[in-house]
């Protein structure tokens, strides 16, 4: 069945694959499910039609038959549960992979996302340097913990899973900050994710949208 | 099977049920699973034994037979999948309930948690008022969206689910801020969660720990 997802008509990240539809595109590419994309302007995201699908007026959403879902983490988990390849078969290993999904979104992402936002919105504030240092101090602690746990392994817990998929999309937001490079095993981990054929297809697809919108 | 969870030896919230073990206790009480608690000092949370269970040195963890899990969201989902009462039987409704779990932790919690932290750690900083206003502006927008979606319903999507359980624990952190009271349906929603017998048992259990630690 072809899924329908929503994405920014013109992504504020200029096609760098940081918008949250990237996670869903990547998951769909990993499992080989066909999908179509409905593009939304910022205005359309606050209209009743979209709010009926996504109460907070965000992207992405996911529609498949009579199911409508929101929250990128929940969508990736739904795809992983319906198709092979993103969650282990063993029940305990499956629960642990899901723990890494939550760790990516609830333990790693908030400060990493705040840091991105601060570098855009608070750069001219008198407190900017101090705020950035406070955020980077928490991010460094978390990256240190994550690096220690990953060690020499390719992925966080056995084979590549939906937990790795979300973690890589979260860590990618640190590109250019220098923070990732302090842990060569984490930088290699992110590069390993970005080298997957499914990732590359998903990345190319979202970049093509931005390029077309900019040319148009 | 009796589960073993970890919690603060002396919770920094002084027994108000804001530490993340509260979610897990509540879920275990809802499904009627017995559990024991291992209490940790802040020092013990950074020792190798605990880091082997929880790479980021946080609480709670969850052990059951040969399964060890971390991340409160993943633990609640695991409990909900193994027992009845926290997820609908219908597959689509189940995916939607899980979407609310992610919405609670990834869309609602970050700024609500940051606001709590800022009122403690940043009160004397020159940016405090502006930072608080920025956080509350986002929180207000999200609460408005959530209030509109909830409407007159008791719970977010049909019967009480793990999505409501997590959302109530996240919104509770706004007690005392005045923000929840701007939406009477959300204040009533939180009160409805807090009135559940399973919630009350879980709350009493964590409060007893704090009271004993303070008396000792």
Model regions low in confidence, pLDDT < 50 over at least 5 residues of chain A:
none
Distance between the termini of chain A: 31 Å
Percent helix range of chain A: 55-70%
What is the general shape of chain A?
globular
CATH class of the largest domain in chain A: Mainly Alpha
Secondary-structure-based class of chain A equals alpha+beta
Q: Regarding quaternary structure, how should these chains be classified?
A: homodimer
Pfam families (chains A, B): GST_N (PF02798)
Protein name (chains A, B): Glutathione S-transferase family protein
InterPro entries (chains A, B): Glutathione-S-Trfase_C_sf, Glutathione_S-Trfase, Glutathione_S-Trfase_N, Thioredoxin-like_sf
Domain GST N-terminal (chains A, B): 8-87
Quick overview:
The structure is a homodimer of 216-residue chains. The first copy, chain A, is an alpha+beta fold. Chain A has helices at 21-31, 42-45, 48-53, 72-82, 91-121, 128-150, 162-171, 184-194, 197-215, and strands spanning 3-8, 35-40, 61-64, 67-70.
Protein described:
2 copies of one chain form a homodimer. With 216 residues, the first copy, chain A, is an alpha+beta fold. Chain A folds into 2 domains: 3-85 and 197-215, Glutaredoxin (3-Layer(aba) Sandwich); 91-194, Glutathione S-transferase Yfyf (Class Pi), Chain A, domain 2. Helices cover 58% and strands 9% of the residues of chain A. Chain A has 9 helices and 4 strands, in the order E-H-E-H-H-E-E-H-H-H-H-H-H. The first copy, chain A, has helices spanning 21-31, 42-45, 48-53, 72-82, 91-121, 128-150, 162-171, 184-194, 197-215; strands spanning 3-8, 35-40, 61-64, 67-70. A 4-stranded mixed beta sheet of chain A has the order 2-1-3-4. In chain A, helix 1 (21-31) packs parallel to helix 4. The longest helix of chain A is centred in the middle third of the chain and has 31 residues, at 91-121. Chain A starts with a strand and ends with a helix. The mean pLDDT of chain A is 96.
